[in-house]
């Protein structure tokens, strides 16, 4: 989602009305390195070279919504709606959403097994440690037949490890910062991360 602090939304609306008038400072947009910052750079370089934006790449534990809330950035481009809603609740604020964005699919990766049927008992699975992608990863494990989640999770309710009803292979779940997931692949049986 492209989210703005409410005061910045007004500035962005004014920007679109200025039709090319120069701003005193670039619009500061926070984006995850891959793919969001890459997308913004492509747009700036190929489609809108006159667009005055400063792309602030983030990774790791930096909270982009907090940067907007505290005035260190004007907008961000990286998140899906469930993540945004969780952040709003934690930060005690509401952000204006100006556009929807794509959601990267999750993939299951391994250097130790060739297929999900080969996952041994007691396997270790690395999952993203942020609440929304953790939920998506658990749902992917369920769709892959490795676990079963409790019935009755309501629409929009995020799954957590405590919602696992059945884990027949007794797989161990390890929550890892998303930026560290590619590095964890040699230490676990499976790693689940954005494609």
Textual characterization of the structure:
With 195 residues, the chain is of the alpha/beta class. The protein folds into two domains: 2-99, D-Maltodextrin-Binding Protein, domain 2; 106-194, 3-Layer(aba) Sandwich (D-Maltodextrin-Binding Protein, domain 2). The protein has six helices and eleven strands. The chain has a five-stranded mixed beta sheet. It has a four-stranded mixed beta sheet with strand order 6-11-7-10. Helix 2 links the parallel strand 2 and strand 3. The chain is elongated.
In short:
With 195 residues, the chain is an alpha/beta fold. The protein contains six helices and eleven strands. It is a lipid-anchor.
Keywords:
single chain, 195 residues, alpha/beta, D-Maltodextrin-Binding Protein, domain 2, 2 domains, 5-stranded mixed sheet, 4-stranded mixed sheet, 11 strands, 32% helix, elongated, membrane, Lipoprotein_NlpA, palmitate, Metal ABC transporter substrate-binding protein, lipoprotein
Number of DSSP helical runs? 6
> What is the CATH C level class of the largest domain, in words?
Alpha Beta
Helix amount: 25-40%
What CATH architecture of the largest domain do you see? 3-Layer(aba) Sandwich
Question: What is the oligomeric state here?
Answer: single chain
């Amino acid at each position: 989602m492209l989210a703005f602090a409410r005061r910045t939304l007004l500035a962005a609306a004014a920007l679109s009305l200025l039709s090319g008038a120069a701003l005193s400072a670039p619009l500061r947009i926070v984006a995850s390195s891959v793919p969001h910052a890459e997308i913004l750079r492509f747009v700036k370089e190929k489609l809108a070279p006159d667009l005055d934006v400063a792309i602030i790449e983030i990774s790791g534990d930096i909270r982009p919504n907090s940067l907007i809330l505290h005035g260190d950035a004007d907008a961000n481009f990286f998140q899906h709606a469930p993540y945004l809603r969780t952040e709003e609740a934690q930060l005690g604020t509401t952000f204006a959403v100006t556009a929807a964005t794509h959601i990267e699919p999750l993939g299951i990766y391994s250097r130790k097994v060739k297929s999900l049927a080969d996952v041994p008992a007691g396997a270790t699975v690395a999952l993203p440690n942020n609440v929304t992608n953790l939920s998506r990863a658990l749902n992917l494990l369920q769709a892959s037949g490795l676990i079963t989640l409790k019935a009755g999770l309501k629409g929009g309710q995020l799954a957590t490890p405590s919602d696992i009803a059945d884990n027949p292979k007794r797989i161990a779940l390890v929550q890892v910062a998303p930026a560290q997931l590619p590095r964890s692949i040699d230490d676990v049986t499976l790693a689940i991360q954005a494609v």
